[in-house]
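Researcher: Let's walk through a ligand-bound prediction step by step. First, I give you the protein sequence. Second, the SMILES string for adenosine-5'-diphosphate. Third, you return the three-dimensional complex as structure tokens. Ready?
Model: Ready.
Researcher: Here are steps one and two:
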Amino acid sequence: MVLRNEGVVPALECRELGKTYGAGRIVLAHLDFTLAPGEFVAIMGDSGVGKSTLLNLIAGLDSADSGDVIIDGSAVSRLDDNAATRLRRKKLGFVFQAFHVLPHLTLAQNVALPLLLNDLPTAGALDMLAAVGLGGRGDDFPRQLSGGELQRVAIARALVHRPKLILADEPTGNLDPDTAHDVLGLFRAQSKATGAATIMVTHSEAAAAVADRILILSDGGLHASSGRNAFAGSPPGSRSTARSADDAR
Ligand SMILES: Nc1ncnc2c1ncn2[C@@H]1O[C@H](COP(=O)(O)OP(=O)(O)O)[C@@H](O)[C@H]1O
Ligand SMILES: [Mg+2]
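Model: Step three, the predicted complex:
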């Protein structure tokens, strides 16, 4: 268990975060959340409840109406656009649900992108590919890869610059159960190896089970999961949002 430790700068703090779309669709309201360095948190919740919105606000892909996002001690929501972009580029890794691996770049070039953007030496990209089980594949192109392999490239790219904070939006959502299981193990091992704190949004209880903490997003805020009770009214397996990885073990 990770305890809040005075003197340790949280990897992420969300304070009083609010987001409303259009005329009155309140998605997030007064959301408070603190993530310790190295901690791995799973966020679950019904479809449309605001999970992607929350990740997008943290990543700066969308802007909050109110509140603050503080990454590794810096209030990014209060920086100007250029400074916020630089900080996020350095401190954040994002694993998108649909991989977003660039098709015209080789695997090595895809993984090297965050290094290039941060003016870091790109040699580490090949080591990172090897760490996710794709050693020797650096010159291949994404079209030559399976879904599980593409997800490994996406994870390698999110971790290669050793960010403080990893955001993953349903990283096993497109994978078969066996591949989901492998990718989760890898993901957790790699984030622990680099010391990154991780938020993983998932519909899969099996995926969430690898996390240090499970939180449920509902009514605009994050709430501690209390085992099965968290899904009261929707027994496991009956939810329309259940994914194939639910059975991954
Ligand atoms: N750009 C947008 N404009 C208007 N409404 C949006 C936008 N993005 C998301 N929403 C709405 O916000 C709610 C939360 O969406 P989202 O964060 O994608 O949910 P989740 O990831 O939990 O399934 C949904 O009702 C969705 O329709
Ligand atoms: Mg979503």
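Researcher: And what stands out?
Model: Residues 228-249 have pLDDT under 50 and may be disordered. The chain has seven helices and ten strands.
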